[in-house]
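Handoff note, outgoing to incoming analyst
You'll be picking up this chain. Sequence as last confirmed:
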Amino acid sequence: MATRADPATVLADVLLQREALVCRLAEGRPPRDFAGMFVGPDDLDRILATLPGLDGPAPELTAAVRERTEPELVRARAAFRAALDGDSPFAALVRAARLTPPDAEVLALLDAVETSPARQRLVAYLQDSVQLPQLTIATLVRIFADPEHPAERCVAPESPLRRAELVEVATTGPWATRACWLATRVVWHLRGDSSPDVDLPAGTVRRPGDRDGVTSANGVLPDGAAGDAGPDLLLVHGGDRESRLRMVERRWPGRGLLICAMPASTAGWAAVVREATLGNLVVVLSSDAPPDAAGADVLARSTHLAWVISSAGELPLESLPARPWQELRVASGEADPEDWRQVLGTDPDPAYRLSRGQLRLVAAARRDTAGPLGPAVRRLAGGYLEKLAVRIRPRRTWDDLVLPTDDARQLRELAARHRRRGVVYGDWRFPPLPSTGIVALFSGASGTGKTLAAEVVAGDLGLDLYKVDLSSVVSKYIGETEKNLERIFVAAGAGDLVLFFDEADALFGKRSEVSDARDRYANIEVAYLLQRLESYDGLVVLATNLQRNIDQAFLRRISVAVDFVLPEEPQRRAIWERSFPSTAPVADLDLDFVARQFKISGGLIHNAALGAAFLAAEEEDVITMRHVILAIKREFQKLGRLRTEAEFERYFDLVNRDADAAPTR
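Most recent structure output, in case you need it:
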């Protein structure tokens, strides 16, 4: 609590005591019970005497009281104004709100009354009403009797005290009897409490600076206040949120920030203005939407504050407030070596391309500061992707992939394109048009190795593979599909991973003729996907059974296209051999026969090998040709494919017997 040694409190007490003496000695008004509850004959005479044109208290009596107390008031006022150059919370607030000395005197008086029941009783006596313990506009005029003092104008709607949301004034009743008081948050602040205003938008963050107020009481910038010249409304767009904040910190070095969403109510706007004023903070409004009309008025009126609107894109000019502004664009949100060293204490890891915001999140999620970054980066992406995609941790390698030589070479070139992006686009300065991202198209029948190839490429790059679940992405509700896909691409960009869209023609198919509203929005989805692919910097694999179903606009964006065909006999032989682990008990398997006779995909071969293993395990026997042939039969049945004697040859009778299942034990 403030003490009498506080110049602000001393000045307030001198003003109150002086006016009390005027009331008691000059006006001859004694304190009385139930003051203001009724008007008696003596009250009526005294009221009539104060009206213009009638005799009031003897002027010489009032002048004598004021003259007697004037020296003490002069000393108190001089000490108070000298203290405004100090470092007390009150002095700092006066500078931050750019208050004039009269404004500061009114602030001191209201604060003193607000925090003292004794002073409130004194105010009730001055106003001759127990119902008025707070100062009214008329009483302010009376206390600051100097004609040159703008007493009532200090609490006018456009006054510095009101623009800074420090003082509140009642909105009902006669103008003269409207009470004035300090906002509760201001009272707590002056008593050293830093609890945030309860009306601030949810999620508001206060980021302290390393210096206090940068302006004098009259609003003049002090010498050496670098970064505070020029327009105090800054529009920052592009990059990521953390990069935009970094640009703000460079614009106002040393200043603290109040970071919040665009307020949605009058109380919210008032809380933001008040909180920023109390802490001398730069207000950073994070919003991709412009302020509404009420918000624009607040920004235009609160000229004592520095404002920033941080958005992903440019805002419409007509939505901006009527005050000078400056616009800056963040070219890239990618963390640079300085960011890596500051946040993680290491040089950048070339395997990960993180924004500044993502880098901070990874640092928070990293449990072992000396360990690899991979787990923390995967945790960053996984929180967003788990509901929309299936995570595949690559386990298989190039040795598990059986493809024609040229197809295998294309896949290795695909991995090399991703691995060497930093050299080509960074060191050699090739223009990344439209982005540094890579889009691969894997086409071919089911089971020909598209998913396996994506897994092998991801494993070679040391990345996770996320197989997008189309059922959770595509929505019948207009606009929801784009929102889901945006979440996927944002999360994927954070984690530097491989996105795999299976049956991609469901999302990337040809645009249709517009016959109804659904066709129109379906085409919008396709256009959105194309735009998002062009701006994505990671690796995307599109898999489809039929390449001709893919929209031509997507084909122009393809970096690598691999057509997966059914394997030839030598390749089928290799796939059969690799489908049986070295630890599996096999006997007399004629792999040359099955590779020659059955022209099937690699996926079907793996399924048949696994089915044969289960048949043998149930019989507690080794895996034989009988089990393999029966498993192939089951795969044909699933596909609805005929079993011909030309294919099965000597095993034809086995697959056509009714009792060809394994005997029961």
